[in-house]
Design a protein that fits this description.
Helices cover 92% and strands 0% of the residues. The protein is mainly α and 89 residues long. It has one domain. α1 packs antiparallel against α2. The longest helix is centred in the last third of the chain and has 42 residues.
Length: 89
């Protein structure tokens, strides 16, 4: 296994991880920012007001993008398995 193959595999892995985490993280970030802005304007400092909308939004993001995430992960796994013979040589 050459250093080029290791770098290529690591780059592919990081790209897939970024793709898969982006919808969830961006949803949590935008909802968290919106709720924090609302809390600072109204001076309501309730923990559940920040937690519940994030959980609902992240759940919705998972439902909306779950199929795409699964197909991306399956494609990546197939690509890695296809690379195994060339990695062993």
């Amino acid at each position: 296994m050459t250093d080029t193959a290791v770098l290529q595999l690591a780059t592919m892995t990081m790209a897939v991880a970024l793709k898969l985490s982006a919808p969830i993280l961006l949803t949590a970030l935008s909802v968290g920012f919106t709720v924090s802005l609302f809390q600072s304007m109204t001076q309501i400092q309730e923990f559940t007001l920040a937690f519940v909308p994030k959980v609902v939004a992240v759940g919705g993001a998972l439902v909306a993008s779950g199929n795409w995430m699964l197909h991306t992960l399956i494609q990546f796994t197939n690509d890695v398995f296809a690379m195994v013979p060339s990695l062993l040589a």
